[in-house]
Amino acid sequence: MSLDEPMRIGSISADPGLLLAPMEDVSDLPFRTICKELGADIVYTEFVNAEGLVRQPPVEHRRRGSDKLLFRDAERPLGIQLYGASEFSMETAAHTAAQRRPDLIDINCGCWVSNVALRGAGAGLLRDPDQMRKVVERVIGAVGDLPVTVKTRLGWDPASIHIVEVARMLEEAGVRALALHCRTRSQGHKGVVDYSWIPRIKEVVSIPVIANGDITTSQDVARVFAATGCDGVMIGRAAVRHPWIFRDARSYLQTGRLAPPPTLAERANLCLKHLRLSVELRGDRGGVIGMRRHFAGYFRGMRGAAQLRGELTRLAEAESVRQRLQQLAESPQAEVPVIPDPPGAPEAATPFTGESALADHRA
């Protein structure tokens, strides 16, 4: 693929092809909105359990599944991701999801966690390609003209990597794009990512192939595009650590120069917007709780990030969080760029705003 050409999935055009990965308890409506505004071409919902939509579980679980289907037009193009082992449940769930009018339906064939994979769903389908095909064909038949895509892994373990054959089978079944986390199920999120399979797959299929796994910086995005010839890159955990990665990667691909890091004011103001969206979706208490996993990412790299994260996490009311974030946005250091630490680096312990400022706020 040439970066001069947009990636196309059905009628969807993505240029240069920067995608936010579906992530449980992370890629909800507020976070997707933030990433879309920062430059993500396509975003995905959290994993939606097909059985949860079909079997009518208790009301609280049913409501949780339906909440995952909520999205706004501003997020488009958007994909709803479904997972399940049964072709019957996946067919019904896909029909239900399609009625929400997303831009595509994605099938999760890559989730590695035991309570999904060992039940035959997610990466468990890699152990049964015939069942994978049944699931895919039933989903495609249930959603009409809506594009269906698949996200998967190289294989169940290093001894059972058949991804080239799987990719060919998926295209024959009617899948319109393939996202590949370039590890096996047995690796989880550990070990070396093997992007060498991407060009091998590209030789046998004509659908877009999207690379995923350990793409953490703008330079990584450019390197993976150049080394693999992939049609797009899908970014997951790195977007949680630094939502600006979509903006930065887009700039780097266009100019070859690294974008300046966001200032403290930019970080605090974007976190404020995320908080507002979270509260709108879940109410005051639920909105604050939903934000707690994101505080580290917004302030990673600044001095005292761990202490600030702890402080924000202890605040139970949205107004208290707003006030603290506003204080950061208006602080004397607000216009100072905050250079993020490399992935895996420990957070600095020295307070950025000074002990007295933190103490005054707590008082």
Task: Give a short overview.
It contains 16 helices and ten strands. The chain has helices at residues 29-37, 50-54, 59-67, 87-98, 114-117, 129-142, 163-173, 197-202, 218-228, 237-241, 245-255, 264-291, 295-299, 305-314, 318-329, 355-362; strands at residues 7-9, 12-14, 18-20, 43-49, 78-83, 104-109, 148-153, 177-181, 209-212, 232-235. Strands 3-10-9-8-7-6-5-4 form an eight-stranded parallel β-sheet. A two-stranded antiparallel ribbon has the order 1-2.
Descriptive account of the structure:
The chain has 363 residues and is α/β, with parallel strands linked by helices. It folds into two domains: 7-255, TIM Barrel (Alpha-Beta Barrel), CATH 3.20.20.70; 264-362, Putative flavin oxidoreducatase, domain 2 (Non-ribosomal Peptide Synthetase Peptidyl Carrier Protein, Chain A), CATH 1.10.1200. The protein contains 16 helices and ten strands. The protein has helices at 29-37, 50-54, 59-67, 87-98, 114-117, 129-142, 163-173, 197-202, 218-228, 237-241, 245-255, 264-291, 295-299, 305-314, 318-329, 355-362; strands at residues 7-9, 12-14, 18-20, 43-49, 78-83, 104-109, 148-153, 177-181, 209-212, 232-235. An eight-stranded parallel sheet has the order 3-10-9-8-7-6-5-4. Strand 7, helix 7 and strand 8 (177-181) form a beta-alpha-beta unit. Helix 6 (129-142) packs parallel to helix 7 (163-173) and helix 9 packs across helix 11 (245-255).
